[in-house]
Design a protein that fits this description.
With 380 residues, the chain is mainly beta. It has one domain. The protein has 3 helices and 21 strands. Strands 2, 4, 5, 6, 10, 11, 12 and 13 form an 8-stranded mixed β-sheet that branches. β8 and β9 form a beta hairpin. 39% of the residues are buried.
């Protein structure tokens, strides 16, 4: 396979990476005969699943809104807005979506997760009944929100949502040092910033799930996936996979040390889908192996069309599992990074990269300060 035509989904799950000049290099590797140490156990060429049938967490910075959506064919309930709304939940005659548990600090009634007024409804989407509601938290913490559907006193559907509201734990330049390239040369001098988030866990969460007092994301993503917080709906529970496998939602590209410094090896599980590539029984690189930047491979042996992330459980096409469960799978939200520059030259371009999305705001040559605001959009 020609390496030059491969576009790997370079994401920055740790937050944001601003690059003065961009270049790409992918090295070809050979496939291993055994699964990697972080193997998610997803069988190669198996069928993809509906991400809404898992408890894969939504991650957000404290103060951000998160919209939760669940659709199912067996939701035989009336559509419309909730008949009652409290700080803790939304309520319809046959449906409730309410906060069940919260791991963070709560010194008074104003602290912690709350519902967002006028944000919930039961609605039709392509002939399927769906329930949605938006929540916000001014404090960091892990939140379990429980959806229940019951008719005439008989409960026939229950689903748990997980939301991790984070505080900024660190925002560090990972390549400090002196400028080594002359102005105008390529690839230029990159400035890489990696961001981590912290989620506090109270004594009850620590005891119930065997977790430490503080989670650091994305580092602890796989650790949380191997606890009882990882659950599936009945449809997925019968296929024999551990619930943690479904937290493998992204490829392993990025700066977290989950791949070779020069890129993921060019391996694929389906040689019909990705001809002329190195076969592998356990891992798929997740890239545009056909040379079409609209088509991406994944562990399921198929190609997605027009979706390269970020992950959204309401859109199964954004599920880009690679067969590995690690920190690169954490769906880290965007964060605003502010650079203050001492003027000894000119910044030609800042290129923020995040989960497959690349923006290229141009800077004036006379600017001494450069801001980039990563839009923390409400996820649907």
């Amino acid at each position: 396979m020609s390496v030059g035509k491969v576009l790997t989904r370079l994401r920055l799950c740790l937050g944001a990476c601003l690059v003065v000049a961009v270049t790409a290099g992918i090295l070809v590797g050979t496939a291993g005969a055994a699964p990697p140490s972080d193997w998610s156990t997803i069988p190669a060429n198996s069928n993809p699943w509906n991400p809404q049938e898992t408890t894969v967490p939504y991650l957000a910075w404290r103060g951000e809104e998160v919209r939760l959506v669940k659709c199912a064919t067996n939701f035989d309930v009336a559509t419309g807005a909730p008949t009652s709304v409290t700080n803790g939940g939304f309520f319809w005659p046959d449906v409730s979506m309410q906060i069940f548990a919260y791991s963070g600090p709560q010194e008074n009634s104003f602290d912690g997760p709350k519902t967002v007024q006028n944000s919930a409804s039961v609605f039709f989407d392509h002939g399927t009944i769906c329930v949605r509601g938006t929540f916000i938290s001014n404090k960091p913490g892990l939140v379990i929100i429980k959806l229940s559907v019951a008719i005439n006193g008989v409960q026939f559907a229950v689903h748990d949502f997980l939301v991790g509201w984070m505080a900024v734990n660190s925002a560090d330049i990972t390549n400090p040092g002196t400028v080594t390239e002359d102005p105008g040369t390529l690839p230029g001098n990159s400035v890489n910033v990696q961001v981590t988030g912290s989620i506090p866990l109270n004594a009850e969460f620590q005891a119930d799930y065997g977790l430490p007092a503080t989670l650091i994301m994305p580092d602890d993503w796989a650790t949380v996936a191997h606890t009882a917080l990882a659950q599936t709906d009945d449809n997925l529970g019968s296929n024999g996979l551990d619930a943690s496998s479904y937290w493998d939602i992204h490829d392993s590209s990025g700066p977290q040390g989950n791949e070779s410094p020069d890129g993921s090896p060019d391996v694929h599980v389906n040689q019909v889908t990705c001809p002329d590539s190195t076969p592998d029984l356990f891992v798929d690189q997740v890239d545009d192996c056909t040379g079409d930047e609209e088509l991406y491979s994944r562990i399921f042996g198929d190609l997605t069309f027009g979706h390269s992330g970020p992950f959204d459980p309401s859109f199964p096409e954004t599920l880009l599992s690679d067969g590995r469960l690690n920190s690169s799978d954490a769906p880290m939200p965007a964060l605003k990074i502010v650079f203050n520059l001492r003027w000894h030259g000119r910044v030609r371009q800042l290129v923020p990269e995040r989960q497959g999305q690349r923006l290229q705001p141009q800077l004036r040559p006379d600017e001494h300060r450069s801001d980039w605001g990563g839009a923390a959009a409400t996820r649907a």
